[in-house]
Amino acid sequence: MIINGNMYRDMVISAACSLENNKETVNNLNVFPVPDGDTGINMSLTMSGVRGDFKNFEGTLGETAQKAANLMLRGARGNSGVILSLFFRGIGKAWAKNEEADMADVVRGIKKGVSEAYKAVMNPTEGTILTVMRVMGETAEEALNNGVITDMNALFAFMLSAAKETLDKTPEMLPVLKQAGVVDSGGYGFVTALEGIVAAVEGNPITAVETAGSKSSSANFESFNTEDIKFAYCTECIVTKSKKYQGEETAGELHKYIGGMGDSVVFVDDSEIIKLHVHTNEPGKVITEALKYGSLYTVKIENMKEQHSNLSEGAGEAPAEEAAPAASGPVEITKKYGFVSVSAGDGFKALFEDLGADVVVTGGQTMNPSTEDILSAVEATPAEIVFVLPNNKNIVMVSEQAAKVAEGREVVVLKTVSVPEGVSAMLAFDPDAEKEDNIAAMTEMVGMVTTLSVTYAVRDTEIDGTEIHEGETLGLLNGKIKCCNYNRKTCIKELVNFVENEEAVAVTVYYGEDADEDQASDIVEIFQAKYPDAEVMAICGGQPVYSYVISIE
Q: How far is CA 184 from CA 3, 35, 111, 174, in A?
């Protein structure tokens, strides 16, 4: 058996469907009981792009592998999603010139995929998705070289068996997994995707099981005047580049042209395709200009004024999920520095905007934005140098991938892992200082921040010898669970005792959507007693999931 483009297309679609069908199982393997078990959702959304129009794609194996990789990279969410997308990106690079692949090519592609995935992690930990990928590739190569495997079906069956065997060993590699009695969730997600691939190789590809979605609350459009919409047509298209323009960053003139046709511009100039989005009053001219660079793969033009009128009259519903942030104006560069910040909650959004953030991407725990969401925000920032504040450990890697593909500006990702760190970084920023001086100042300030967070347990478990029960309040210090109690205030009093910073000068209590100002005042008193010489204040962050996020500096 030889793998060609069509077969590989079916393999990755089957993998995506397998993940979609099992995403909740992957979610539930999350070790920690805090409500952030979205590994399955992130991995499924990362691959969701190949479950759409990609099923009609026709090309060589190299073209198909690169197309699939591009779709995944743009949709990548969370650390596990980025690692998964880079694994397939590596395969796409290894097979770039292949019409088809034999068993040796498959092993070569797997090795490259593992290499690309490992590059994304500075200090890889054994017992994770990376380990499952690596051991699978190493054992498959050894078996092939020793003549143990003689056909393609056997090769993929062997890789699946090796991946499962390694996954089963992850609790022995990571004590926290063994303590919780689970295998690594990212590794499980990878095995789930691999099961879909093997099913397609064997001629029985997996299809997605459709489930009825729940209805979400929608925004009130009646207070917004349709005539306030300056550019009426949301115009999107994907262009398959002609040979003349193949290669990365070859469509700069098209990007400039689109920038002058409206606002909310998103432009991705990849080696094989161009993807553009713009709000304009002349969609025909946009499409005509795009056609100069190749053939149209997809086109979507929507009349936003008509949509708004229908929504105002109750003729339609708002989308269930919030879209990526759109540009608020032309994307021409007008200043030296700009900021993109990630946060959830109206209070946090307003705070970052007051501090000078150009775009605030809605996201955080349980709702990690994708690579394309971050890229869209970067492209919407009219600055030569754009600082990105992920403000969550699971969004740092996605931000770094967006930085690599951003065009027309320099992107600096500050590895902030909490909202208080992001706020402190912006307070340390000096618009008159040089880039490197700003990076140093902001990094130093971030290092001086202690972040406390208060949430709730979503399952029974045991962490570091502490029994945790579903529904208990959890107190976290810099992301690590320190205490639990059914009484929230008692939990916070206990949490404060774990803070080693005795010389704090400022404490800010950001209260979330399930707390109010009076409750926050009680929490302020706890910190005033702990730090009598510090300035202690409460601010409404409006964040979901976390009742309180507390900054100590």
A: 30, 17, 21, 9
